[in-house]
Design goal:
mainly alpha; globular; 3-stranded antiparallel β-sheet; 3 strands; about 55% helix; single chain
Length: about 150
């Protein structure tokens, strides 16, 4: 996978040796979209349940119906919540006109809609993984309306 922003990240010298994710989003948004869409744990969990994650709204609805067996393992819940949020963001960015990834100053990736409204998809993913509400498809529907 060619992610040119990683090369730029490595070449630049910054105080403290780190490069803000926000710079990478601006420099190479397509590679960042690709990176944020990986969601390996969620994809593995979904595949085990027979759900294909094809970056569609239907896949969000299918995820909402999966039996939440991961809630017994706090470590898995945290990782899965993060993945679920990034997957929700991926579906939004790929299917809602004008939706783009944006990074807050603290490094938190969010989805910015054409209206300027920002959706903290990672927080929504954690809420879904922890308790099942709000459903991912519900968050999507509310965001897509704007």
């Amino acid at each position: 996978m060619n992610m040119s922003f990683l090369d730029k990240w490595r070449r630049r010298s910054h105080p403290g040796g780190s490069v803000p994710l926000a710079e990478s989003v601006s420099a190479d948004p397509e590679s960042v979209v690709e990176l944020l869409s990986e969601c390996e744990l969620l994809r593995a969990q979904a595949a085990a349940e027979g759900v294909e994650l094809d970056d569609s709204v239907g896949s969000l609805e299918a995820l909402d119906q999966v039996q939440p067996v991961w809630r017994d393992d706090p470590e898995v819940v945290s990782w899965l919540g993060n993945d679920a949020g990034l997957y929700l963001g991926t579906v939004l960015v790929r299917t809602v006109r004008g939706a783009v990834w944006h990074v807050w100053p603290d490094g938190q990736p969010v989805v910015r809609l054409a209206s300027g409204r920002e959706i903290d998809v990672v927080e929504a993913g954690h809420e879904w993984a922890d308790g099942g509400a709000p459903e991912l498809s519900q968050v999507y529907a509310e965001a897509a309306e704007n």
